[in-house]
Amino acid sequence: QKEVEQDPGPLSVPEGAIVSLNCTYSNSAFQYFMWYRQYSRKGPELLMYTYSSGNKEDGRFTAQVDKSSKYISLFIRDSQPSDSATYLCAMTGGHRLAFGKGNQVVVIP
Amino acid sequence: GAVVSQHPSRVICKSGTSVKIECRSLDFQATTMFWYRQFPKQSLMLMATSNEGSKATYEQGVEKDKFLINHASLTLSTLTVTSAHPEDSSFYICSARAGAETSNTGELFFGEGSRLTVL
Question: Residue A45 is nearest to which of B44, B49, B110, comparing CB atoms?
């Protein structure tokens, strides 16, 4: 089993819809969970950073962590064409980082 | 937010030459920086962890003699691809950890990446 599983997509949604992304993981030592957005030919940009279980909201973005299920989610409300990108989940329990494969999202105007 | 600058953004070189990529944290000190490779449609692959003032820690399967890492200061790490070959062509990305120097859980910020093409 891979350490972090993320469905690579692609995921196409109409503008204004809610985008729902998720990752599962196997290492119970992970405590810090991150979501990155990566546009084509650019480096990943940190979107959300969450510690342990719970929800975190920032504008149109909501990150959820359920450590008991080893499951994290990212929701994008009122999606815009500019949200079209690849979204990577990442997590760490200490020194080592683990990334998901990335989920390509396309928001159709 | 914290900014990590990576240079050059694109480099084309001939096979057999060496290429140096710089990674700078512009408004914070980073005792730890990370170097990744990214192949098309794949996730980031951690190559090595760069620690200021000490030798880098390489991931399994990464040749340390081929990918030389120097973390000379708290704001600069360099990756040198020695004797580059076409199979080294890839997108190289660095990241730096912000936060307390003794903490390994600070937020992680990425550079824009460097696309290396070896002819």
Answer: B110
Average pLDDT score, chain B: 86
Interface of B with A (CB under 8 A): 1, 6, 34, 41-44, 46, 49, 91, 93, 104-105, 107-113, 115
pLDDT of residue A91 exceeding 60, the answer is yes
One-letter amino acid at B68 equals L
What is the amino acid identity at position A53? S
pLDDT digits (tens, 9 = 90+) for B39-58: 766 667 889 988 888 889 99
Query: How many pairs of residues across A and B have Cβ atoms under 8 Å apart?
Result: 49
Q: Residues with Cβ < 8 Å from A89, sequence gap 6 or more?
A: A4, A6, A21, A22, A23, A33, A34, A35, A36, A72, A74, A99, A100
Residues of B in contact with A100 (CB under 8 A): 43
